[in-house]
Amino acid sequence: MLNVVPWYQSLPEHERRVVRGELRTVNLATGEYLFRVGVRSPGWYGVVDGLVKWSCRGADGKTLSLAGFSTGSWFGEATMIRGARYEYEVIALRPSRLVMLPRETCERLWNHNIAFTKALMTHLAERVNWLMGSYTGNVLLDVDTTVARAVLAQANATRHSVTPGRLKLTQEEIASLCGVSRQRCNAALARLARAGVLRTHYGGMTILDMDTLYACAKINGETGPLFLP
User: Fold this and answer.
1) Could you state, in order of their start, the residue ranges of all structural domains in the chain?
2) One MF term from GO for this chain (predicted)?
3) At the top level of CATH, which class does the domain 141-223 belong to?
4) pLDDT band for position 223 (50/70/90)?
5) By CB neighbour count within 10 A (0-12 exposed, 13-18 middle, 19+ buried), where does 141 fall?
6) CB neighbours of 199 closer than 8 A, spacing ≥ 6?
7) CA-CA distance, 86 to 78, in Å (whole number)?
8) If you ran DSSP here, which 8-state letter would residue 48 be given?
């Protein structure tokens, strides 16, 4: 995973060895929580393989789905930088393997490596952009746009993979990420397929037209990807 992470490639070799030595691996079963509300952040998380969902729960017990993180995604940087406790929860939607870079390691890197600091700042900027879009989606957007945004976020996470645009993502998982029924999600995906945006197949889908996917998601592609891995 680290071999395709730009900030890691920018580190001197001795720093790469330190990072590799200090990474912690976390394995999650389907339905298992990585953490819950109130747990103090130990560091920055990256998804090696699998899919996890970022969500928060209201006083009435209802859950608001905020985003999904798949292979290549990094998350939790804002809470990690603040040394704070999580105000949200992350749960595995399928068996997943993650790594965690301890906060102490991150702090040393952002104090001494400009590429790492820029990567963190870029992630923070993208996260704010996503949260604004997520709020808009939950309040104003229709199901088709919400589903398109969920697919686009996962497609952007594959940009540095060996199979960019090919998503190991089921329709049930997309529905869970969007907080909509599976039937409504399937109908939205079918419309995207008819428009030539994507092709579904067993175990996932392939993005055929990223420009049109951006348009369907009502996102300006010139502003950059929704999430950086």
Assistant:
1) 2-114, 141-223
2) DNA binding
3) mainly alpha
4) very low
5) middle
6) 193, 205, 206, 208
7) 10
8) E
What is the per-residue pLDDT for 139?
62
Q: Is the pLDDT of residue 229 over 50?
A: no
- Rounded Cα–Cα distance for residues 12 and 91 (Å): 34
The label of the residue with tokens 């952007």 reads 156
Distance CA 173, CA 169 (A): 6
Query: Nearest 10 degrees: CA dihedral of 49, 19, 114, 223?
Result: 0
Give this prediction's pTM: 0.70
- The HSE-up count of residue 141 (CA atoms within 13 Å, CB side) is 23
Sequence-ordered list of residues with C-beta below 8 angstroms from that of 101, at least 6 positions apart, any chain: 19, 22, 23, 24, 43, 44, 45, 46
How many alpha carbons fall within 13 Å on the CB side of residue 154? 30
3-state secondary structure of 217: coil
Class of domain 2-114: mainly beta
Q: Which residues, 6+ apart, have CB-to-CB distance to 89 below 8 Å?
A: 33, 34, 35, 36, 37, 54, 55, 56, 57
CA proximity to 153, closest of 139, 180, 134, 136:
134
The CA distance from 110 to 199, in Å, is: 41
DSSP string, 105-138: HHHHHHHH-HHHHHHHHHHHHHHHHHHHHHHHHH
